[in-house]
Write a structure and sequence with these properties.
Oligomer: single chain
Structural class: alpha/beta
Shape: globular
Order of helices and strands: EHEHEHEHEHEHEHEHH
Strand order of the largest sheet: 1-2-3-4-5-6-7-8
Number of strands: 8
Radius of gyration: 16 Å
């Protein structure tokens, strides 16, 4: 990325939320800040619950020209009129998702800290890859997607990259020249004013 390019915000929902409260928060965040995409990242496997959440979030996001992708569920994404899917298994399901959803859908792939997996996802037709956690986290095995991975990707690969997971203002400042998008979720939704919290993180980009 050049010095002139500022990363865009890729918003990620909480894994669980109370629908009426969250949609109010979501509307406020989208009204306050420019957001490129919203990922519906529900942990639930209740199809009806996912559908209700997707309908509500899609209505709010599309009214503000924000694309919505659904995490993991390829067929549900199409049925619910969403813009695409975010896959959590690296490159494994990219071709399947592209075939099912067509050339115009957004297909993204989370590739943890693996450069090779990211390249494979891109070759399979992913529109973007996400690496993470980009900040220090005690979750999982504690592995982190470091500066070197994002720097190599931004210099060598044209496919957009998302930095996500365990971000704070300091880490965002460090990565602002090395990524196309910041995936922001838990970092703001736990705060009393998510829109203000996102504003703080955006300012950290410089």
């Amino acid at each position: 990325m050049s010095d002139q390019e500022t990363p865009q915000i890729y918003l990620i929902t909480p894994p669980d939320f109370e629908l009426s409260q969250f949609t109010t928060q979501l509307g406020a965040v989208l009204d306050a800040h420019e957001v490129a995409c919203l990922r519906l990242a529900l942990a639930s496997h209740d199809e009806d619950r996912i559908a209700r959440a997707a309908d509500a979030c899609r209505e709010i996001a599309h009214a503000r020209d924000v694309a919505v992708v659904l995490q993991s569920h390829i067929s549900l994404s199409e049925r619910l009129g969403l813009d695409g899917v975010h896959l959590m298994d690296g490159a494994r399901s990219v071709r399947k998702a592209r075939k099912a959803l067509g050339p115009d859908a957004i297909v993204g792939a989370y590739c943890a800290q693996t450069r090779h997996e990211g390249m494979s996802a891109g070759e399979a037709g992913a529109d973007y890859v996400a690496f993470g956690p980009a900040g220090a986290s005690g979750l999982g095995d504690g592995a982190q997607a470091g500066d070197a991975l994002f720097q190599w990707w931004s210099e060598m690969i044209e496919i957009p990259v998302v930095a996500e997971g365990a971000l704070d203002a300091a880490r965002i400042g460090e990565l602002a020249q090395l990524t196309d998008f910041f995936g922001i979720g838990d970092e703001i939704w736990a705060e009393d004013d998510p829109a203000a919290a996102l504003g703080t993180l955006i300012r950290a980009m410089g």
